[in-house]
Structures are given as C-alpha cells and as structure tokens.
Amino acid sequence: MFEDTRYSVSPKDVRGYSNERLREEFLLERLFVADRLQMVYTHVDRMIIGGFLAIHGEAEIADGSAVGTPGFFDAREMGIANLGGPGTATVDGQVFTMEHRDILYVGRDTKSVKLAGLDPDNPAAFYMNSVPAGYAVPTALIRRAESKPVTMGDEAHANKRTLRMYIHPEVSPSCLLLMGITETAPGSIWNTEPPHVHERRMEAYVYFNMAAEDRVMHFMGEPQQVRSIVVADRQGILSPAWSIHMGAGTGPYCFVWGMTGENKAYNDVSPVAVKDLL
Questions:
Q1: DSSP for 96-131, written as a single string
Q2: In terms of Cα–Cα distance, which of 251, 250, 240 is closest to 45?
Q3: How confident is the model at residue 1 (pLDDT cuts 50, 70, 90)?
Q4: CATH number at residue 34
Q5: The domain containing residue 51 runs over which residues?
Q6: For the chain, what is the largest distance between any 2 Cα atoms, rounded to a whole number of angstroms?
Q7: Model confidence over 98-146: pLDDT tens digits?
Q8: H/E element holding 25?
Q9: C-alpha dihedral sign at 115, 119, 123, 125
Q10: Which residues contact 93 (CB under 8 A, 6 or more apart)?
Q11: Helices (H) and strands (E) in the chain, counts
Q12: What total number of domains does the chain contain?
C-alpha cells in the first residue's frame, strides 16, 4: 500500500543535512500520479499522507494489512481534500460529491472509501491525511462555504491570507485530526508568518493552485537552525513538532494543513519572532 516510509529524525541531525537529504526526509514529491493511489507512511505521529489523481480509475481504501489491522479504519480517521475538479467519495455505500476545496472527514470504524473523478478533462485530486483515532466520529462533508474563515496578516508585510478551518472543533469534530486550507491574498506571498512551533502536534502541508513555473520557498528547522526546501505545485512537506514552518511563494498559491498530536487546540503554539531566526 505504501509507496514510501518516512522516519522521525532528531533536530540535531538535521543541522548537518544537505539539500538532497532534507528533501529525502521532509518533501513528498510524487503525491499525485494518474489513477494511482500514492500513500506515504510517516513515523511523525504516525500520520499517513496520500494522493489520488482521478482521471479514469477508482481507488479504494479498505484493507488494513499494511497498518496491522483487518480494516484500514479500524483504529484510524482521515481527512480528504479535493484539490482538483469534481469527484466522488463513497463511504460505506454513501456517495459524497466533492467540489474544489471541499474536505471530507472519514471516521474510525469505516469499512471502505472509494474515490473517483467526474470529469477526465478536469480530474479530481484527492489529498489525504490519516491519523490514529481512539474513538469514532461520524463521517461528514465540509464544503468550502461551510468552513470557518479567519483573515490574518496584512498587505504591508505581504502576508495577508485567509485560513479556513474545516476539520476543527469549531466547525466539524474529529478525534485528533485538524485540517484546513489557507489561501494567500493577491499580492501577498508569505504564509504562517511570524512562524511558530507546536511541541504537542506535528503538521503536514501540501501546496497547490500554483503555476507550473512557480515555487514556494518553505522554511523549516529549529528557530536558530533554519533550513529551506523549494516546493512545487501539489508537493507535500512534513513538519515535525520541533520545527518552524513558514513559506514565501513566487506566485499565488494555497495549501492544505493537517495536524495531529496531543490536542486539537489550534492556538497551542510557541511563536518565534522573525528577528530571532538564524
């Protein structure tokens, strides 16, 4: 089931990594391959990250042998964001039609999830975050219009953006998964600025809605050991609890953020002033 496995790393080791090693450990380059389910198992809070570009085929998530349980969702929940054209997610026989930037929450004890596109010329692009869950929460579709928007930053600092909460206690519940989408305002390039760390939760990003020639310069690492990774459209980033996370784009972009850990308190963070970064 898994195309790759990523292991937890010590921040002390990361200080000596080359660019190539940083990308090997933290960048998820091939999440979207035509009609092929791509899944990456990480030992960073055991989050599974996946992608499926639905052109003509269908993907099913049901078998749990790769995670050591009869069914994939026997002890897991999942968030599925559609980053492309219209598609469907069928959860135990119930069909959910998903438009661009809708997110579907799938609860523990689900037996089967099937993903498919509706328009081969505008394929659905399903992005998945799955994390361990201690109890079941009902499956729910959160449309973009039903998400909770929070505007942050300002034009003067080129960091104005709208953060939309989807899988969040204030919008739609889960066991331990948080998930949402942030979109930059026209003329702004920075996200998650000023940066922060959250020792009690890890985070994963996927950047999307980028032009082919554009890139996001994603900054990570300890606050006094900052490193950068160049990220293209529909590529993902792992952010361990000890790492800052912020980025600047050469053009417009959005990103999905997903988190899991000890709590679902979105504001349980330790801010780091930009002037203190090294």
A1: EEE-TT-EEEE-TT---EEEEES-TTS-EEEEEEEE
A2: 240
A3: confident
A4: 2.60.120.10
A5: 4-276
A6: 53
A7: 999 999 999 999 999 999 999 999 999 999 999 999 999 999 999 999 9
A8: helix 19-26
A9: negative
A10: none
A11: 2, 24
A12: 1
